[in-house]
Amino acid sequence: MTNPTDERGGLNKGLTNYGDIEFSLFLRKAFIKGAGYTDDALQRKVVGIVNTGSGFNPCHGNAPQLIEAVKRGVMLAGGIPIDFPTISIHESFAYPTSMYLRNLMAMDVEEMVLAQPMDAVVLIGGCDKTVPAELMGAISANVPAIQLVTGSMLTGSNKGERVGACTDCRRFWASFRGDQIDAQEIAAVNNQLVASVGTCSVMGTASTMACIAEALGMSLPGAASPPAVTADRIRIAERSGAQAMKMIEQRLTPDRILTGRSIENALRVLLAIGGSTNAIIHLTAIAGRLGIAIDLERLDAMSRDTPVLVDLKPSGRYYMEDFHHAGGLVTVLRELRPLLHLDALTVTGRTLGEEIDAAGQGFAQDVVRPMARPIYREGGIAVLRGNIAPGGAIIKQSAATAALMEHEGRAVVFENMQDLAQRIDDEALDVAADDILVLKGIGPVGAPGMPEAGYIPIPKKLGRLGVKDMVRISDGRISGTAGGTIVVHVTPETAKGGPLGLVRSGDRIRLSVASRTLSLLVSPQELAARAAAAPAGATDPATRGYRKLFLTAVTQADQGCDFDFLRGLPTGESVPEKRG
Ligand code: FES
């Protein structure tokens, strides 16, 4: 419900109505003057700044500097900036999993943007789930909003070798598990993996979402790539504050920027950067807030004609700071130009095509390849279907082992995380290098929160023999920083009665990435008999609180794991557009 004073903007917005709206304004100004504001300041347009700084979130460790710079930009443009907190989610400090909290943060952002008087908002986010949460909340609030990511961390060095979180975290830990490096070296590596504040230094979920925010038009051109501790990052922050003021004048709300065409641009970029599989879930949730569906079959078709161009780990060699030095995202956008919707609007009020043109010519570099010389001939992500994934499954083919992408093997099944922890390193475990590891019970409801546990560790006894990769299948997720032949997002999940729950150790499974199939080689009659004998996967009951809300309302991966009651009314639109 709005008040008659809302259209005046600034502090007049969203006044509590006691029956005398001018008294409400009088009261509000009296309180904020307690912080030393003048009447001159309080008559200006207000730009809110979402402050996600937290001692538990080193990925946002530069939030104070960013806020200071955003404030400078807002004030230079004649407005008044006011920062406010929301919850902050770091991947390693969010039990049971950060994904469990993404929707809570989205609700926090939406409600606080609407509850407090602001004419525009700068969304400071960075660590994996924070950017999608902020975009989801901003879409639902539909107040002019601009995304500002914290930027990537610097890389460190171990014995002269460059290292960075978290692709190298997994590589070194696998070497430690396989007795290839000792306790002293792994401790030394631990000091080097995260060399500064900022988000993971590879093309993991945070970097992917930073690129997606720019491709969507929701952040300034060039905003995705500057590392957290650089002057470039601080300048982007100042400019984001100033741009928020222009967006107020232009009434540039998220519903004008985010359309099916901008979502399609973001999907194209996701495939070309070899981005995180998590971004499919987040983009599905973002599109869902707009009432737009993502068609996985058409996404897969798009993947077949979108090569991976960015040579960053985990698909390639380099790190985010190299990507920035190579020109950042516009270097990719220039290559993708014929495949993009250039008329999509951005936060600048200009179109994506105009911004690509304004960036001028590129220069010689080796991090972003031309279309004619990609690092992988198809898009980074492939969509699989089959009798154990009727709602689809995902594999990051650009980071998989080529020899395993056409593979048939014997299933070695773990019923849940506890079962995995108890048996994976058991010397008596019946497992061989060409087996397929299956982990059940880690879907959106099952875990709950769909943890990034799809990166099932290689059993120690195989690791010691030098086995680096195996086909692994689960209804969970993997970190965007992880590599390997790993099938995730199997839908529906086992806790919702998905057929993955019917797989038994010893069954044969066939994976064919070329034909996009994932098949359990068990007869339909046998599967029907197993289904009749087995109840749907059990979930710990929740009687109260956020957990109850989560388990009641969370949707499956193919719906973006958003809460069903937060999704927009369906418009009937689905992306990518049908071609041919
Ligand atoms: Fe925050 Fe990787 S842990 S971006």
TrEMBL record:
Q: Which domain of life is it from?
A: Bacteria
UniProt enzyme class: lyase
Entry's EC annotation = 4.2.1.-
Q: Which Pfam families match?
A: ILV_EDD_C, ILVD_EDD_N
**Database matches in InterPro entries:** Dihydro-acid_dehy_C (IPR042096), DiOHA_6PGluconate_deHydtase_CS (IPR020558), ILV_EDD_C (IPR056740), ILV_EDD_N (IPR000581), IlvD/EDD_N (IPR037237), Sugar_Degrad_Dehydratases (IPR052352)
Where does the record place the Dihydroxy-acid/6-phosphogluconate dehydratase N-terminal domain?
Answer: 45-354
Q: Give the PROSITE patterns listed for this entry.
A: ILVD_EDD_1
Where does the Dihydroxy-acid/6-phosphogluconate dehydratase C-terminal domain lie?
Answer: 366-561
Q: Which NCBIfam families match?
A: PRK06131.1
> Family per UniProt?
Belongs to the IlvD/Edd family.
- In Swiss-Prot or TrEMBL terms, this protein is called IlvD/Edd family dehydratase
Q: Name one GO molecular function term.
A: lyase activity
The protein's UniProt keywords, in alphabetical order, are: Iron, Iron-sulfur, Lyase, Metal-binding
